[in-house]
Amino acid sequence: MPIPSPFQGHPTVDEREPVHETSAGGEGYRRLNRKCMVSMYIGHAISYAILLAGYLLLKTFSQEFLGQYYDLVQYAALAVLAVVLVYIVAAPPVYYARYRYQITEDKVDVRCGVLVIRHILVPIERVHQVEVSRGPINTLLGLADVTITTAGGDATIEYLEIEEAEKVADHLNNLIGRMLQDRITTTPAPDAGPADE
Amino acid sequence: MAGEKFRCHPSIIVENSFNAFFSIVILLIFLGAWTDNTAVLGVLALSPVALLLFYYRQWKRTTIQFNETDVVIKRDTLFQMKKTLPYTKMASVNMNRDIANRVFGTAKVLININSGASATTPEAVLTFKQDVAERLRSEMSQRLYDHAISQDEEETIESLATFTPLDVIIHGIFSVPTYQTILGSMFLAYSVFELYLSMVTEAELGAGAMISLLMFVGLQIMPSVSLIFRYYHYKVYRRGDTVYLQHGLIRTYRTSFSVSRVNAVRVKSTLAARLLGRSCIEAEVVGLASEDDESSSPVLCLLKDDATQQRVLRELVPEFVYERDPHKQPEGAKRVLQIRAGLASLVLAAVMCIPSLYVSREAAALSGISGIPDAVVQSVLPVGTALVILAIFYAAHVTYRVVEFDAGEDLFTFVNGAVDRETVVMNYDKVQMVWIAEGPVARIFGVARGSVYMLSSIGSSRIMSGYFPESYFNRINEIVMDRITSGRYDYRLNSI
């Protein structure tokens, strides 16, 4: 079976997942690979371990400094740890379930978020740079992020399979290249007039 | 100018050597604790000569060539450099004069490229004799904006509005953000309180009072004085499509930029300025970096009465004036703002519990104060917290009333701010990206907040809206896309 294109009209994703997601705000939205949850769990576990180490240091060394407020601070820290634990357990499936992205001929559209849902829209015309990057955890899992840079900031499509991330980057680069090529062929040669751009 | 080769004025040898020497002295002060004093003194004695020789060689081997199409800066030292700055990519050519320039009779020509990555620093800072700098700037202005401007013209041309020294002082004092003023006042109040305590208890004034006073000076006095010095002799005018700004008491600034570089226009007023019926205009302009690491956007009009400010806006940047049909926030936004205010109040009350108890207990233990002063000291934090909570709810109410959104044909506007208010008029063609965010509470009430990303004078900037239905922000994106696909967007004027 040929690998379908990751772009609108020819969506591909994890084969176990629905290809079209009309409920997320239109047709042609794509979902992430389930492995993204593993990556998030590992990342969260590392962050939680650092937080836990901080808590243990606080518990061990702060009694004298905090004096009568020691117990109060302990309870507050435990409450924070509990809330964070609940979040990091619950967040990955919610993040996975909510994440949708779509790349059309003229824009990149990403919908994501756990507590706050974000809808990011980047016109292809504004894209300056496309970067594929992956950290050690994502490398182990075969995932990568695509960062789309505009003059006003970055947007990232996260946790794509490496092959797909490369395809997305290539496709975006092709679209930008085509757009620039069109400009070269349609723009008259600059005269010696005002140097505006 | 074509083909002319220049060297910077030799005064930069002294200027650069002095700056580097200053850094070396600071380094040696730190190193002095670990090293032999003779070595430190030796380095101190030798470094001025070494620095002068180094910068002399660098000056001698650096040339600037003004060609027909570009400016080429070439340095033939150990670290060779050839920088080509095409006129077509230049965003602005400005001129600054600081104290060193006044001493040597020179001026700095700052060349800015339309770049996001280096938006905060000019691509080239070139020091020339003042008349040479004036001529070069004028000739480059001819190439950039299709008209030259001479120094005589700049001196005699009338500003779009008259800014008296009093206007500048008012701008300096009242354009400092209100939260900064409040914080500064709190530090002042604390140092006065410490002074009172030391008088009552006849104890020595603690270091806390001095630190607090310094914080007050740093937060309130210094920014105001700095603004007054910066915007003294303020003048603004427009010729063709170019906006010119001139100001400065000790350091002087001459700035010009094409209106096509303006990404957004902001009408701002702090609480105090509003009470005086004044507001100022700022612009988000790409490629205006100054070498002193300015973080502010160029001011197009100092704090003036609203009628003058509106006139300046219409005459200076009519491209950003349109008939607005603003939308107020829907009812759902009110609930979201109230819930947010409630949560913020709860957090504040929880955080202030311990300091309130601490102050109360400490005040009770002080033997020198009793009666009303004792009661005042004990209740200052709880009462202060209660007042802040009231202020939070009031701010939520005002925010609901004030915030507006308006999508016009070519421009759109966000009005924000409960205390310090700002009206930001943006051009669809300058929008880089739109983010729409729906928090858990906002989702319940069917509203979202939009963030528009654009390029500003300090790099990228994000302008946030209030709470509106998501469709409002989708509309911005639709218009942006529509302008691109239908050809209404002209990349030659907006290629950022």
Supply the helix-strand structural class of chain A.
alpha+beta
Structural class of chain B: alpha+beta
Q: Approximately what portion of the residues of chain B adopt beta-strand conformation?
A: 25-35%
Query: Which strand order spans the largest sheet of chain B, edge to edge or round the barrel?
Result: 13-12-11-17-16-15-14
User: Major beta sheet of chain B, specifics?
Assistant: 7 strands, antiparallel
Q: What count of helical segments of chain A does DSSP give?
A: 5
State the helix count of chain B: 15
Mean pLDDT of chain B: 86
Large-scale geometry of chain A: elongated
Report how far apart the termini of chain A are: 48 Å
Q: Characterize the overall form of chain B.
A: globular
- Tally the beta strands of chain A: 6
How much helical structure, as a percent, in the residues of chain B?
Answer: 40-55%
Poorly predicted segments of chain A: 1-6, 8-26, 190-197
Please tell me about this protein's structure:
- The complex is a heterodimer of chains A (197) and B (496).
- In chain A, the strands form 2 sheets. In chain A, strands 1-2-3 form a 3-stranded antiparallel beta sheet. A 3-stranded antiparallel beta sheet of chain A has the order 4-5-6.
- The longest helix of chain A is centred in the middle third of the chain and has 29 residues, at 70-98.
- Chain A contains 5 helices and 6 strands.
- Helix content of chain A is 46%, strand content 21%.
- Residues 1-6, 8-26 and 190-197 of chain A have low confidence and may be disordered.
- Chain A has helices at residues 35-61, 63-66, 70-98, 136-141, 162-186, and strands at residues 100-103, 107-112, 117-123, 127-133, 143-150, 153-161.
- Chain A is elongated.
- Chain A has 197 residues and is of the alpha+beta class.
- Chain B is an alpha+beta fold and 496 residues long.
- Chain B has helices at 11-31, 37-60, 99-104, 130-145, 151-156, 165-174, 178-201, 207-231, 271-275, 306-316, 331-365, 372-402, 440-444, 470-486, 491-494, and strands at residues 4-6, 62-66, 70-75, 81-86, 90-97, 106-113, 124-129, 235-239, 242-247, 252-258, 262-269, 278-285, 299-305, 327-328, 404-407, 411-416, 421-427, 433-438, 448-456, 459-468.
- In chain B, the strands form 4 sheets. In chain B, strands 13-12-11-17-16-15-14 form a 7-stranded antiparallel beta sheet. Chain B has a 6-stranded antiparallel beta sheet with strand order 7-6-5-10-9-8. In chain B, strands 1-2-3-4 form a 4-stranded antiparallel beta sheet.
- In chain B, helix 11 runs antiparallel to helix 12.
- Chain B is globular and about 80 Å long.
- Chain B starts with a strand and ends with a helix.
- Strand 3 of chain A pairs antiparallel with strand 18 (433-438) of chain B, so a sheet runs across the interface.
